[in-house]
């Protein structure tokens, strides 16, 4: 099982961010507000409840996400990990990741986080251009990224990732590739490169729509940024193993790979999502409502069973995000049907246009296919739904019972959902 812990605090909200978090301004967590203490008390309580419900299952990765987990003092991170080792069977070689903002990492804190058990840090660099960072509403400058990487190296961290955003207003493929070369000089083990998404309700979207910022790169320029950027990273020694993720050999993010390979995962904290035993639920995106739910032992009470169609679409979506692709036999194992037969016209059309490849029993997107993955996935979803409906009508599709659906989450129905 994978364990995700959502830390819902940040110094200030970035202009592009649509995740749940609460800005704390200049506050420090060791001088925490009442809401911070409320979160700390209840995240360990929620952890203990699920450890009991699930029978202390093995956990092979832990991921502190946010928000800005590096606002938590190292002792708090260590305390949570110690509790996790008591509530679950925490693998001695577990990957323990923590997201961090560059300005919150120093030589002193880096060493303390390592001693408390964190062995992988994902730095939210986003850019190495100060103008771009200001536009994004980030609280650091490019020099802070370099300082943070050196501090982590001095503390003997051997697994450092950097998050970057491309496709920014006014950005060109030439500037993006120049930035990737600068990033590679820092020699991180992992790079996550996400195209800017203008989420509804974010200041970034409002600024772009109002014309206050330069235009976003057009479709052709964005395609160059993605394809040429990925080619450059591979030349620099970074293997693309997922649509937006690149790593040096041996440094794939095991936690994220677990998501894409369909492993069970438990999410703790407000707004965190879990999928266990074929059921899925999401905690309230509000610290107070989530804490009340935890105290009533009611997290997971609204878990929904994933039906066959849900599981098929998720199998296709998650596997096709990876460079390895979809093992076509996995579709048969889930449905009792032949993937290539059910999707023959679509697969032929995509193959003819160089968007997919089939090799050794795997269907994968090419790099050009990854560029338009959302459109391709929508077409696979439509074809899958049609094939499953036809199979159900003809009695040739495996039922949920025949598919061996995992049992309900123990203790999931502990009480009614928290009232709005």
Question: What order do the helices and strands come in, and which of them pair?
Answer:
Elements: E1 2-7, E2 9-10, E3 22-23, H1 34-53, E4 58-66, H2 74-87, E5 89-100, H3 107-115, E6 120-126, H4 130-136, H5 142-154, E7 160-166, H6 173-185, E8 190-195, H7 203-210, H8 219-235, E9 239-242, E10 245-247, H9 254-260, E11 265-268, E12 273-276, E13 279-282, H10 287-295, E14 304-305, H11 308-321, E15 326-327, H12 328-335, H13 339-342, H14 344-352, E16 356-359, E17 362-365, H15 367-371, H16 373-394
Parallel strand pairs: 1-4, 1-11, 2-3, 4-5, 5-6, 6-7, 7-8
Antiparallel strand pairs: 8-10, 9-10, 12-13, 13-14, 15-17, 16-17
Helix pairs in contact: 1-2, 1-10, 2-3, 3-5, 6-8, 11-12, 11-16
Query: CATH homologous superfamily of the largest domain - what is it?
Result: Aldolase class I
- The neighbouring-strand order within the major sheet is 9-10-8-7-6-5-4-1-11
Uncertain spans, ≥5 residues at pLDDT below 50? 401-420
Using the CA coordinates, give the radius of gyration: 22 Å
Helix content: 40-55%
According to CATH, what is the topology of the largest domain?
A: TIM Barrel
CATH architecture of the largest domain: Alpha-Beta Barrel
Give the overall shape.
globular
Strand content: 15-25%
Largest sheet: 9 strands, mixed
In CATH, what is the class of the largest domain? Answer: Alpha Beta
Q: Kindly, what is the distance between the CA atoms of the first and last residues, rounded to a whole number of angstroms?
A: 30 Å
Please tally the helical runs, counting DSSP H or I stretches of 4 or more residues.
Answer: 16
| Overall number of domains | 2
What is the mean pLDDT?
A: 91
Structural class: alpha/beta
């Amino acid at each position: 099982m994978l364990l995700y812990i959502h830390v819902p605090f940040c110094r200030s909200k970035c202009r592009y961010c649509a995740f749940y978090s609460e800005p704390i301004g200049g506050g420090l967590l060791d001088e925490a507000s009442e809401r911070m203490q409320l979160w700390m008390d209840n995240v360990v309580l929620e952890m203990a409840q699920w450890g009991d419900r699930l029978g202390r299952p093995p956990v092979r990765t832990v991921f502190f996400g946010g928000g800005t987990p590096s606002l938590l003092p190292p002792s708090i991170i260590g305390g949570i990990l110690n509790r996790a080792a008591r509530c679950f069977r925490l693998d001695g070689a577990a990957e323990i990741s923590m997201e961090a903002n560059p300005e919150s990492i120093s030589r002193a804190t880096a060493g303390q986080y390592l001693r408390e058990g964190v062995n992988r840090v994902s730095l939210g660099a986003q850019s190495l251009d100060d103008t771009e960072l200001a536009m994004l509403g980030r609280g650091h400058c490019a020099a802070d990224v370099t300082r943070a990487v050196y501090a982590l190296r001095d503390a003997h961290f051997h697994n450092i990732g950097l998050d970057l955003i491309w496709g920014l207003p006014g950005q060109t493929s030439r500037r993006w590739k120049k930035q990737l070369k600068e990033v590679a000089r820092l020699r991180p083990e992992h790079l996550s490169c996400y195209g800017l998404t203008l989420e509804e309700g974010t200041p970034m979207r409002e600024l772009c729509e109002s014309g206050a910022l330069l235009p976003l790169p057009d479709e052709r320029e964005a395609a160059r940024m993605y394809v040429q950027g990925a080619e450059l990273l591979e030349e620099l020694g970074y293997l693309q193993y997922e649509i937006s993720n690149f790593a040096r050999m041996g440094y794939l993010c095991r936690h994220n790979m677990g998501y894409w390979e369909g492993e069970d995962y438990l999410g703790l904290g407000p707004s965190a999502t879990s999928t266990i035993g074929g059921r899925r639920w999401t905690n309230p995106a509000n610290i107070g409502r989530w804490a009340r739910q935890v105290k009533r032992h009611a997290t997971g009470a609204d878990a929904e069973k994933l039906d066959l169609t849900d599981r098929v679409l998720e199998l296709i979506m998650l596997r096709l995000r990876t460079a390895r692709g979809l093992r076509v036999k996995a579709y048969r194992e889930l449905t009792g049907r032949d993937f290539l037969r059910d999707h023959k016209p679509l697969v032929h059309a995509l193959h003819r246009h160089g968007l997919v490849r089939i090799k050794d029993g795997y269907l994968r997107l090419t790099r050009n296919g990854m560029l338009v993955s959302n459109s391709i996935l929508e077409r696979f979803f439509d074809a899958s739904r049609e094939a499953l409906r036809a199979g159900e009508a003809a009695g040739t599709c495996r039922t949920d019972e025949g598919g061996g659906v995992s049992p309900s989450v123990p203790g999931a129905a502990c009480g009614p959902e928290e009232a709005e």
